[in-house]
Amino acid sequence: MAIDVTRGRVAVVGSLNMDLVVRAARLPHPGETLAGQAFAQVAGGKGGNQAVAAARLGAQVAMIGCVGADPNGAQLRAGLEAEGIDCGALHASQTASTGVALIVVDDSSQNAIVIVAGSNGELTPETIARHEAVLAAADVVICQLETPPDAVRAALAAGRRLGKIVILNPAPATGPLPADWLPLIDYLIPNELEAATLSGLPVRTPEDAASAAAALRLAGARNVLVTLGAQGVLAALAGATPGDADDAGDPVHSVHYPAPQVKAIDTTAAGDTFIGGLAAQLAEGAAIDAAIRFAQQAAALSVTRAGAQPSIPRRAEIAA
Ligand code: ADP
Fold first, then answer.
1. Which range marks the domain in which residue 223 is found?
2. In a domain, 39, yes or no
3. pLDDT tens digits, 208-264
4. Which residues are catalytic?
5. Does any ligand 1 atom lie closer than 6 A to the CB of residue 232?
6. Cα 258 from Cα 236, distance rounded (Å)
7. Which residue, by CA, sits nearest to atom 5 of ligand 1?
8. Is residue 111 part of a domain?
9. CA–CA separation, 126 vs 139, rounded Å?
10. pTM to 2 decimal places
11. CATH number for the domain that contains residue 215
12. Model confidence pLDDT, tens digit, residues 152-194
């Protein structure tokens, strides 16, 4: 693929799922069979969504991940390639099927989701080592927690060793992160539920988020951005100057960025859009303050549209 020197480069290490989405009046009870209203099969997985977001929002993106050698895997690969994403480090497992998310959405927009990780579970530290050149070529490395922890840790460590801007979206969060991960991360970006799980503190308001972020910084995270849905983002940044990521230990610079007010239709992939947009900006050399504002505009646009990947805007749609 031709290299465009004007665009930042983002490597995404993460999950790819085929989302099987059904709509029904309500969620079924155990043992019950319900008639649904609609069915859709769409590309998903936090890794894939964030890769698409970073690409649409301006970055040159490479994906490290694992699909199955099956039609779902081929479809996911084709979808990423159609976005111009480099899939040279996207493996096709011979033993596991492509990850699947079974999603039921009811009339009040509640959902119930079962994810079978499948081939996503085959991402290993060896896969990361084999594709170190992909990380070395990037400005920003993004990971989430839908792939095995030892592979995530290997990617974070390689990103840090190679001097990249390292982002971890700790989703889904099941408990505190291993203490030795935190110094490997430049930007830890949980949503409010994840921030609560990681810190052990309740997170409902920007003030709560500031307390949780401060606790996570005390534990070793450099910069913490807590996304708060319609309440925006709470950023706890290292150093006196926003964007100065190397001053861990300096006074905390904590800023609340209210979200643009929009009419929300469907908030699926808002967080993924925010992270992809932020990464695309940081990869271009933007300061963190400008990167957060850009990413919020992109995420706010995404919630005005239905669906996950279809809702992710393109760069030209974001006001300068
Ligand atoms: P996740 O999808 O991971 O739960 P959030 O719901 O916190 O993430 O959303 C991520 C970001 O998307 C928010 O910080 C905000 O900038 C934007 N966003 C989400 N919901 C809305 C909304 N209703 N109105 C405006 N912006 C929103």
1. 9-16+46-95+120-317
2. no
3. 999 999 999 999 999 999 999 999 999 999 874 444 444 444 456 789 999 999 999
4. 272
5. yes
6. 14
7. 229
8. no
9. 22
10. 0.94
11. 3.40.1190.20
12. 999 999 999 999 999 999 999 999 999 999 999 999 999 999 9
